[in-house]
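Narrative of activities, Objective 1.

The group set out to show that a structural description can be obtained from nothing but a protein's sequence at a throughput compatible with the screening campaign. Below is one input-output pair from the validation batch, recorded exactly as produced.
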Amino acid sequence: LDVADEIAPAAIAAQPRLHAATALSVVLRGGEPEPAVVGAAHVLEMSSLTPTLETIPLALMTLYYADRTEQVDAWCTTLLEAARERSIPTWDALLSSLRAASLIRLGRLLEAEKHSELALSRMSSQGWGLSIGMPLASSVFALTAMGRYDEARARLSRPVPEAVFETLFGQHYLYARGRFHLATGRLQAALGDFLACGKALDSWGLGDTTLIPWRTGVAEARLRLGERDQAVTYLREELARHKGCPRVHGNALRLLAPTMEPRRRLRALQEAVDELQDSGSDLLLAHALGDLGRVYHLLG
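Output recorded for this entry:
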């Protein structure tokens, strides 16, 4: 099914699950996102909450992986109200998890942690199954980014099925755990998690996509370990592969900047800020602005 040719509302209404799954597949494989985004939006407009409906999370994940973060947040807000009015805890959990992921990109970490906690409390570990990796990842990431390391460590102590790591949800979890290890000085453990994430994505043919920025994680760990040349190699590879994704390209440029002399670093960070302003990731933009401010101070 060609998403570009099959986004007419009548066609989507006839086979909503097929269209939602196809749109997500296109985005996951790094295809042209716009037709998939249009198709996902049509699916959401035509869907209503039922206990077994699978199209809504598929459509929301399409928007999330296509970097339409504000759309995900808006849809989750609307759908969460409906789920709570109708007392559907499964939907409350799923939508809270997806909203937490979108809030992290928007830089709203307190809200992200609240929604990941809600997601985990609304459904048992058994109910979550292998998808528990996603709300746990959001919780660990948000807590780590806020410096609440003891709480993040407690989250990581929660048992997860080994099979989680054979899923995309598990790679989000590995990436978040890597961020925690990086923040708490366990650099080899962080490097191991980021490399394991990249290896899994590569094995599924997803290593060159922008789903999870594992290469920048590897680069950050290697920079902290003093392995500058290897870090630069990963960052330049990320820059070459993802020129069309401001979130990934801008952040890779931000991380590459400290390896440059001050004047070039300034230009690189200015470019990174310009890109990240269009990325939908206020968290990464805040990091870039902070780095830029420090370079201005250095240069006087």
